[in-house]
Amino acid sequence: MKELLAHFNKAFESKARLSIMSVLMVNESMSFNGLKELLALTDGNLATHLRALEEAGYVLVQKQFVGRKPNTTYQASEAGRQAFTEHLNALEAFIRTI
After folding, report:
1. Between the CA of residue 63 and those of 3, 30, 70, 83, what are the distances in Å?
2. Which pTM value belongs to this model?
3. Count of structural domains, the chain
């Protein structure tokens, strides 16, 4: 069982990060406000988790202006997609052993 747990990715242990990556895996990209509304997270909480995923190389950030308003969008990087898929596979393998 310890061997199976070793395949879990610590970056996705947080419920918020798991939720963020789940959303980004099924959407090409999402705005900060879209993620905030969908996941019911505060600005600070969402920003902290997005920054951690960005620093891990799992999320790509694009900042632009729409008119005069800033618009930040996020998408899962290829490394993020791979890491998340591996994490889900490890969770599934763990569940099957129970």
Report:
1. 40, 12, 7, 24
2. 0.92
3. 1
